[in-house]
Design goal:
2 copies of one chain form a homodimer. By secondary structure, chain A is mainly α. Chain A contains 22 helices and 6 strands. In chain A, strand 4, helix 15 and strand 5 form a beta-alpha-beta unit. In chain A, helix 20 runs antiparallel to helix 21. Chain A is elongated. At the A-B interface, helix 12, helix 13, helix 15, helix 16 and helix 17 of A face helix 12, helix 13, helix 15, helix 16 and helix 17 of B.
Amino acid sequence: MTLRPVQIKHLKNLFQIGNDDQITHAIEKIHPSDLSLLFSELNELQTKRLVDCLLMVQKAGNTLKEIPEFMLPDILELISNHKLSLIIGRLDTDDAVYLLNKVPEGRYQEIFSPLDSRTRLNLEKLLLYPQDSAGSVMNPVYYSIPVESTVEEAIASLQKFPDRESVFYVYVVDGKQLVGVVPLRVLVLSDAKDFIRDVMTTGVMMVEASSDQEKAAQLVSQYNLLAIPVVNENKELLGVITVDDVIDIFEEEATEDLYNIAGLSGEDRAFTPVTTKIRKRFPWILLNLGTAFMAAMVVGLFEQTISQFALLAAYMPVVAGIGGNSGTQSMVVITRSIALGEIEFSKAYIAVFKEVMNGLFLGIIAGMVAAGVAFFVNMNAFLGVILFMSMMVNMILAGFMGSCVPLILKWLKLDPAIGAGIFVTATTDITGFFVFLGFAELFIDKL
Amino acid sequence: MTLRPVQIKHLKNLFQIGNDDQITHAIEKIHPSDLSLLFSELNELQTKRLVDCLLMVQKAGNTLKEIPEFMLPDILELISNHKLSLIIGRLDTDDAVYLLNKVPEGRYQEIFSPLDSRTRLNLEKLLLYPQDSAGSVMNPVYYSIPVESTVEEAIASLQKFPDRESVFYVYVVDGKQLVGVVPLRVLVLSDAKDFIRDVMTTGVMMVEASSDQEKAAQLVSQYNLLAIPVVNENKELLGVITVDDVIDIFEEEATEDLYNIAGLSGEDRAFTPVTTKIRKRFPWILLNLGTAFMAAMVVGLFEQTISQFALLAAYMPVVAGIGGNSGTQSMVVITRSIALGEIEFSKAYIAVFKEVMNGLFLGIIAGMVAAGVAFFVNMNAFLGVILFMSMMVNMILAGFMGSCVPLILKWLKLDPAIGAGIFVTATTDITGFFVFLGFAELFIDKL
């Protein structure tokens, strides 16, 4: 159960007046995920003490890995190399890699070298895979049995397996090659003398270590699995990705999509230091300034026309703005459909066509509303006609660009969301201004 | 394994020249999730035939539930009430509710009434809970044993449990009250004569049926569970939510966040009919038109100034645009932090402060760049000063509104993302125009 406010108060109080025994006793029964919330409540000295107590109850690593990413650097700074090495050595390999990732370069060697050789070997296996690959997030300590075993032997060897909590399936290997799988449920219900060969399921769903982690996550989600084995090109078992990791991957990917569209980096959260925020957002704002000035240049071309009829300046952002919003909608729909694997290139033209048609019709409707306003408020029918035409053109373009940009990015094997937002709105701004002011210049006598 | 293109070709061919036996034989070994992809490849007659064959191999329901939501209505229309009733009757209760949800009102009674009384009872249990509550997505058919059982008895009763595939934990009840849990792994490793009371874990993580489904999902994710039991206010076990449902919930929520920001509805996907797209997006575009005209009115106030100095019209969208983008960034960061449970109201003011500071500094930088452009391109230093001041003011406001709006929406128990986008950009547009043109009017003599 999540910590109640009174529990947090009690624990904070213990750090002020209690001794280590009392603290250790108090935290012993609390889930690491809850303990991780404590860190934001403590000062430096108390944080160090909490880490020491966590080490004593063997919970330090599992608690550290649950701490929000942006808080980790500050906390890691308070822990000595020796203690960090101890903590990382006791963690599951995938979690150890995660923490090692967060360690500043200068401290890396001092933390890595003291680890025992077996741990180092396991870590190195994972560190070789590219970022966001299935291999980089798998747990290389997995549980498998030879295909010639019996159920009884499988149970006996499970009994000896140290990291039993992460075992959801028994993987069956022939030599090193993965040939089958036995769910724990089947193990429970089989006779002790049964041969594994007879109770196992063949045709195991698996991913190659070099595949994208997203692929592993999609397979687990699509086929409702609890874990998916990771193999090399010869189908030899290398490790396992469990469903809890898959949930983390999905959360990460969902944040990424949202963030890419808005030009944010994943490290930018509510409590990230302001300096980091500024540094990360600055390039995006600069890029935005660039496109905004391009749009401004387009408007500048029509300076003469605007000074003749200044009302154009008021309506000009209406045309561009509605186009930008409509283009963003098309882009989000296509991006999300790509992320959920609902769209294939062979049928992408249908999706583009639908967005263009949507743009056409919404453009007609929005254009009529805008024309109505121009007519009744400004008593200027011709301004209405120009608004109507330019909104329709711009909305068609919005549908086209909004759907094509993510598809093209995907086709180039880039992230379909990244930069799509700015590219789409820059186009609709520039075209919106150009078409609207261009029509206005052509028919300036009638305005 | 996902279907390869050649397999799809082969299956399509079977529908043209093969007989039912051949089709049934072919689809028997294919996973429902893969079979669901076939529907988009078949015509009406072939679709009906596929449903019949699926019914024969008892895979119709599990395949239908995997079909992308937007395709379901058309396919359900091709299936008779009698067959749909059969299909729904064989499904897990939570999946049955999902399909029943998609059935048009006019057909509901004809499909629901023929179900056997026990299925109807189970369905009614779920149908009573509000949308998106834990109770509405749980599976009410769960596996539990009395606290006084032995391990041997537990295994024997699991053997008799019909829906074994969804059993990840053995829930232990005293009367009806949930008192403990035994992971399958522990069941495998315990002695047959052990008492469940001695091997079970107490302090089970659970959710109340009336809680939001998101809460259940967050608990499963946070504590790395495979399933979470759903209880009533007396801690009596009502059902179970499994981790595969949790992944679905997360995908749904991630789409929702993204869609709410862009003013889209969840039904709007790449291949949704154009008429649906238009209908769903129309109100949002209309709202956008409303705010755009408000911004246009603000610009209209300065018509006189603009006709004196038309270059203002070119720079005006720069001020508003950068503000809008910066405000959207703040909003996305805060929205995502709320969704991931990283932010509490007691500390929200810190997050707001950080976004305001970020706005101030980025405003200064962007303002200086813009001022430089105005100075060097237009040789107008005073225009630069005005740009600098108005961008700074607008960016501070962007940070403030971008962070406050989602927090206020959350505080009002509304979705923090919904409408936040339009509200934030409307504010930055209107203020951007007003501040920039206002400064310009004040200092028009110097321009």
